[in-house]
Amino acid sequence: MDLEPSERPFLKQLFTPHSAAGFLAEYWPRRHLACHGPLERLGELARLPEVLDLERLLHTYRGQVMVALPDRRDEHSVIRVDAQSAGALYRSGMALILDSAERYLPLLEQWLHMLAFEVGLARNAVARTIFYASPPGGGNSPHFDANANIVVQLRGTKRWTLAPNTHVPFPTDRWAMNMGPPSPELAGYLEQPLPEQMPEGAEVITLEPGSVLFVPRGYWHSTEASEDTLALNFTYSQPTWADVVSAALRQQLLKDARWRELADGIGSPDPERNAACGARLSELLHELQAHVLELEARKIMEES
Predict the structure, then answer these.
(1) CATH code at 101?
(2) pLDDT for the residue 77
(3) Domain span at residue 262?
(4) DSSP letters along 236-270, please?
(5) Residues of the chain with pLDDT under 50
(6) 180: exposed, middle or buried (C-beta count within 10 Å: 0-12, 13-18, 19+)?
(7) Which of 120, 127, 240, 279 has the greatest number of C-beta atoms within 10 Å?
(8) Is residue 212 a contact partner of residue 35, using CB atoms and an 8 Å limit?
(9) One domain for residues 21 and 90
């Protein structure tokens, strides 16, 4: 399926008055964008019974619901409960997260994958939809994500605070300011300490029913609901050049039986075995350049 920009209805519906081509040229994947308008402009998405009634959504959603613990106000601090218990906890003032909702609502799956096609993501990019139900005062503490989000505000008013991430551009892992040390992968390429509060000059955007917000990967953001709110996120992993090339290189290396051998001795306490392992690895690395030169950009793109 190869649609012309004028035939891409989903991006255009979400980000009117911007065209799909305009959104891709000016905002995706680096700049945030908020568009406002009546919820009804989103057509069949706005008419889903589940987006208007949390109890009906919980009845339709048959997975475990994540309940955000109020002491941390973040997705890394949750408990998982059944839908009936989730409703009671929401009424007591705790926020709910319903992950991978497209498994139960086919229309969401259609939107999810069509949007991924429109923005040109790799076929193996992970995509999912997430409902966030927040009671008054609920929300998330300052953090950044390793994925990109398109947020559709369905009910209630929620305030977002956003800022570009100059501390670690294009992060490959999530981190929240109340989370503790970053993951080893993230820490491996940090060039400066991560902040303890939102950067100066952060922009505040208020989302109302029908508002749509694009949050790029790595953007600092926090949220707070002023009333009962429900929002739908279209969430997309962000395959990097390192991901694309390393996956292709692995496939190339696996064609050679020597690269499929056990990395024998790599963790051995025996100095002789360890030294033999190092010599073998050096031999293989010496030949690595030849394998890299065999990679072809067009073939990698076709297979991603």
Answers:
(1) 2.60.120.650
(2) 82
(3) 242-303
(4) EE---HHHHHHHHHHHHHHTSGGGGS--TTTT-S-
(5) 1-8
(6) exposed
(7) 127
(8) yes
(9) yes
With CA atoms as reference, report the closest residue to 194 among 216, 162, 214, 218.
218
Number of domains composing the chain = 2
State pTM to two decimals: 0.90
What is the rounded CA–CA span in Å between residue 110 and residue 153?
19
Q: What is the pLDDT of residue 293?
A: 87
- Give me the pLDDT at residue 3, please: 40
Cα angle value 112/217/140 (rounded, 5°): 90
Determine the distance from the C-alpha atom of residue 138 to the mean position of all C-alpha atoms in its chain, rounded to a whole number. 21
**Could you tell me if 46 and 192 lie in one domain?**
yes
Tens of pLDDT, residues 230-265: 999 999 999 999 999 999 999 999 999 999 999 999
Say if residue 148 is in the same domain as residue 251: no
